[in-house]
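dumping this here so i dont lose it
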């Protein structure tokens, strides 16, 4: 810093103000200092600055897996919006969805020095019905039922599922079959509950749900079972990957989609528009999820005040070519 000050002909304090983005430096002097920094290859010591301020400009992200579409897309969006705010992210995977696993992740985050944390809690913990986080931590929880205790951000899973089922009923289908995600998943649980409630409220029969694991293979296995049921004319899959497996199973069994069976997915992954046929699905706004997560954790970091509660990010139905009225009775 002293070398930069000598080359630029300014004080070390002025160099410090320029390096921290302080507004009280005239533009000509700022340009002079920046030119000296560039010539000397000077970079501020961010670690030293962080220790001095007690601010690390890093957000920790705790999660159980990056393998699912929802988690990977959410983390991508969090990283993007954090970068726009001048923050980096540190990812801490949790080996098992347990209370001890989550607390261990917070311990590691403390060692890595972060300003706040976002916890992607997409599944129920194995050893407790309620998550307990360390006190005094600036934290936002994603995809959980802990809104009475913590700041929670989630996709409006129920509204998206209701839109999918109502769409199929509006086309004239007598009922709608459902392929769920894993039983441990909050999202799958909410989508299944909404599917069931729409059918019940409409006075329609509720077929037994088939359980998948989010993979196309599990959707394919469910599709082979549904293809053997002549009464099945419409299926709501809890994600697009399982819907893809359904499409393959129906194709192999000679059942035209949507001529014989209509299919709706959930997520609106980029590939869904290129399925055969292009998939009608529920769009999740992952970019908005990431923005709200970052916005809310930064409000806590900046002491701007937040209260416990759940913020729901809206969904919307995207109609494509995989749904149509049911075939006429034979």
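and the seq i came up w/
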């Amino acid at each position: 810093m002293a070398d930069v000050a000598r080359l630029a002909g300014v004080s070390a304090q002025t160099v410090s103000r320029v390096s921290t983005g302080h507004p009280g430096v005239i533009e000509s002097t700022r340009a002079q200092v920046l030119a000296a920094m560039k010539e000397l290859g000077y970079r501020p010591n961010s670690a030293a600055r962080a220790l001095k301020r007690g601010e690390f400009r890093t957000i920790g992200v705790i999660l159980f897996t990056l393998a699912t579409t929802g988690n990977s897309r959410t983390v991508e969006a969090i990283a993007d919006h954090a970068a726009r705010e001048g923050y980096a992210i540190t990812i801490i995977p949790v080996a098992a969805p347990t209370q001890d696993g989550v607390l261990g992740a917070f311990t590691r985050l403390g060692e890595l020095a972060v300003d706040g944390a976002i916890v992607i809690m997409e599944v129920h913990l194995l050893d407790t019905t309620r998550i307990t986080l360390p006190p005094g931590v600036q934290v936002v929880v994603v995809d959980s039922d802990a809104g009475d205790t913590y700041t929670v951000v989630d996709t409006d899973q129920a509204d998206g599922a209701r839109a999918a089922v109502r769409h199929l009923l509006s086309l004239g289908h007598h009922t709608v079959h459902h392929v769920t995600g894993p039983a441990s998943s909050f999202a799958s649980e909410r989508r299944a509950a909404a599917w069931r409630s729409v059918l019940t409220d409409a006075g329609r029969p509720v077929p037994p749900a088939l359980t998948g694991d989010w993979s196309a293979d599990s959707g394919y296995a469910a599709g082979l079972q549904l293809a053997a049921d002549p009464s099945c004319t419409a299926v709501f899959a809890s994600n697009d990957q399982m819907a893809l497996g359904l499409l393959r199973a129906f194709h192999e069994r000679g059942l035209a989609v949507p001529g014989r069976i209509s299919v709706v997915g959930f997520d609106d992954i980029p590939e869904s528009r290129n399925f055969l046929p292009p998939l009608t699905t529920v769009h999740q706004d992952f970019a908005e999820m990431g923005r709200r997560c970052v916005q809310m954790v930064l409000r806590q970091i900046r002491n701007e005040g937040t209260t416990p509660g759940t913020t729901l990010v809206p969904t919307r139905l995207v109609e494509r070519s995989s749904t149509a009225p049911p075939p006429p009775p034979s």
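DSSP finds eleven helices and twelve strands in the chain.
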